[in-house]
Structures are given as C-alpha cells and as structure tokens.
Amino acid sequence: MSKRILIVGAGFYGSVLARELTDAGCSCKLIERREQIGGNCFTRYNEEADCHQHVYGPHIFHTNSEEVWRYLTRFTKFNNFVNRPKSMSAGKLYSLPINLMTLYQVYGVNTPEEAKATIEKVRIPCDSPNNLEDWCLSQVGPEIYELLIKGYTMKQWRRDPKELPASIIKRLPIRFNFDDNYFRDRYQGIPEEGYTKIFERMLEGIDVELGVDFLADRDEWIRRFDHVVFTGPIDAFFNYTEGTLEYRSLRFESEILDTPDFQGNALINYGETQVPYTRIAEHKHFDLSYSKDKTLITREYSQEWQEGMERYYPVGTQENLDTLRRYQLLAKEAGLPVTFGGRLGQYKYFDMHQVIAAALTKAKRFLQDGFEVSDEEEN
Ligand code: UDP
C-alpha cells in the first residue's frame, strides 16, 4: 500500500513536497490553517489597480540554481522584473544596493578608482567585525552607514545594530561599478499570473483542506498517517515547552491612489528612523503593468511578533538558536514520525529559492532512504 503522508502548510516547502511525493506514488493530504494556499507568497489580483497584490509583503523570485528555475517554470512564466530598489534618506534618494551611483550621490566620485580611494579614507578598519555596525563601518564608513543602514536596521529589527550578527547584511553587496541589480543571480522575475497560480498548479489533483488547525488535534492527525511534514512553527508544535522563538512580524498599510505612478519604482526603502515604515512597495511595478490611472501602494512596518500575529523573520540571536537546538533535540527524543521543514519549521531565514531547493532535496531523500531519516543532517 502506498505511504499516507500528511503535509501541514501550503507554502513552498509543503507544496513542493506534496507534488513530488504524489508524483512518486505516495498518497498525500495537505492541510492549511489559512483559508488560502501559498503561505506568505500569496498574491491576489487587484482589479482597480490592474496588478497582483503581494499580500504578505513583496516577493521577488531569484535563483542561481538551474534545477530550481527549471522546476518552477513548469508551473509559471516569469516576467523580466529586476529588483533595483532605492532608498530615501534626509529628503534625498539614493541608489541601492550600495554601488558607484550611491558613492557618486554621497561623495561626488565618478570612477571606480576615486570611489575606492574615498572608501579607503572613510572606512573604520576593525580586526574582527562580528556585529552588523562594526562590519558596515569597516566596509563603507559612518556617513553611508548613518544614511542608509543604521535607521533602516533599527526599524527592521528593533535592536541595536551592535547586537545583530553581521551575517544579516552580508547578503547585500557593495559594488564599485554602476550595477544596481539587487540580486545578481542568473534567474530573476515575478510570476506573470501572480504567485498564487503557481501553488494552484503545483497542488493540482492533491487533496487540500483549508482552514484546518493541525495543532488543535495534533496527536490524532499523527496517528492517522504514516508520516507528517510540519511546516508551521516548531515551538508551537511542542506547545512552547522549551520557550518561545522570537520573530519579527510585519504590519501592512495598503491604499489605492488616484495616480498612474506614485513613486516610479517597485520598492523605496526609508533609511531614517523619523519615518516609521521601512519601505513602500508599489505593486504594479512588479507586474510591469502600467495600464491603469490608479496605483496600489503598501507601507511596511516592522514589529515584534506576538501571539496572534503572522511570523516573518526568525531573529538569529544566540538565545534563539539555543532554544531551537532544544526543540530539535526534543523532536529527536520524541521519535515522532514528523519532519520539520521551511522557514518556520526550521527557524531559518530561507529565501524562496532556498526553500524550494530544500524541499526537492528532502523529497529525494524520502524516496531513496524512506521516511525514517533524521532531520539532523539538514539543520
Ligand atoms: N538594509 C539596510 N538598508 C536598506 C536595506 C537593507 O540597512 O535599505 C539591511 C537591514 O539590516 C536588512 C538587511 O540589510 O535587515 C537585509 O536586507 P534585505 O533587503 O536582504 O532584507 P529582506 O529583503 O529579506 O527584508
């Protein structure tokens, strides 16, 4: 008899596994707490503004992986959107990520050589720049740090940048040329029909039930299946016995404006703390759709996660990583037929392409080695 697998959560991790395991002959059921599929990638078409609204924040797909790109293009066509965000600070706009145009705007330098010489003069060298502030000061100096990074980071994380790991910002390049493509991955774009369509196609023919709270009936669900893939928060799964994992949550304020183009770009960040939101997204630019005289914008505010809010960013402090470790040990000791996956299940700051790659790898492992393999190696 084919294995009966329960997948909890209809984001990328759960949906890719559901597709792969079903295609390999497993009998999969997927349940989702929300009334819709797609996790935080969920988009909804907005007729008034003629564009897809990124309901849980802007999602720009990018990857260097041929395998991930080939996989996803089975379910959608991508447009050729390229992310070139700007930052507003002290009444002026700056180019992002920090590149020669930014250095021209701040210091008036015109060439890579001039820019390098200026940065060499202003940077504050540091032997081991472990925290975010020391790392930025050692790379770009105080002026750019204050204008573009300090305020944004304090709003985003509500923590002193000295207490944050440098890894958060090391994702962002500093370039001495005019390349302002935020992600330099080989493949990039926004799904032409919105993200939700990808999930609809991916889950075709699979038994999906929405509005179901797995945790309310956890043991009964586990009993009824051979294996469970849980993509919700690992601390909630264990009823918070080892402590609560911290997250940053987001609050969105959306409005439709009577203008064809509000800010001329998909994303404008706000680098200073005087402005309470971190950025404004103008959704029609993601779709490259400019037909309507109206536009939909969303102001994004970062806030500490509390019960009842949606979780967005894991906060990678040592304390949280220690708590995570205790849950992973608990999961191992409990010996339950449950795999924890995705951003919430693994408490990892995954991007979409990384989640898809992780789910594809996991599906292969399940199919080759069986469902009893431990999660250990991947955490
Ligand atoms: N960041 C910043 N200023 C910006 C954009 C980003 O200081 O205008 C910093 C901030 O600390 C942020 C980190 O860089 O948390 C990573 O930014 P990214 O845009 O990669 O974050 P995400 O898109 O995941 O929110």
Automatic annotation (TrEMBL):
Cofactors demanded by this protein: FAD
Q: What is its EC number?
A: 5.4.99.9
Sorted keywords for this record are: FAD, Flavoprotein, Isomerase
Q: Which InterPro entries match?
A: UDP-GALP_mutase, UDP-GalPyranose_mutase_C
Query: Which residues are in the UDP-galactopyranose mutase C-terminal domain?
Result: 148-349
Tell me yes or no: is Nucleotide-binding among this UniProt entry's keywords.
no
Query: Which cellular components does GO assign to this protein?
Result: cytosol
Q: Name one GO molecular function term.
A: flavin adenine dinucleotide binding
Q: Which domain of life is it from?
A: Bacteria
Concerning Pfam families, the annotation shows:
GLF (PF03275), NAD_binding_8 (PF13450)
Question: Family assignment?
Answer: Belongs to the UDP-galactopyranose/dTDP-fucopyranose mutase family.
This one is known as UDP-galactopyranose mutase
Q: Which organism is it from?
A: Pelagicoccus albus
